[in-house]
Amino acid sequence: MITPRLLTPIYWASTVYILVYGVIILSNYPSRLGFEKLVGALVFIVPALIVLRITCEIILILFNINDNLQKIADKN
Q1: What is the pLDDT of residue 16?
Q2: Radius of gyration of the chain (CA)
Q3: How far apart are CA 13 and CA 52, in angstroms?
Q4: Which of 6, 41, 52, 58 is most buried, judging by how many CB atoms fall within 10 Å of its CB?
Q5: DSSP letters along 12-49, please?
């Protein structure tokens, strides 16, 4: 299956995209205090990276389950 092999580059490209977008948030939105911009960027970046990681892990788990089920079916 090709999807598990493609998932790693997709994960890293998405991670870079999220980080770049976080930097854009830091630089584009005016704020009186720099701390507000930092908190705003972190509120976006941290949950986005967590959701991305969980989604990729779930996809890989589903493919591993499929592989194990195929091995079990081949034994019978």
Answers
A1: 97
A2: 19
A3: 11
A4: 41
A5: HHHHHHHHHHHHHHHHHS--SSHHHHHHHHHHHHHHHH
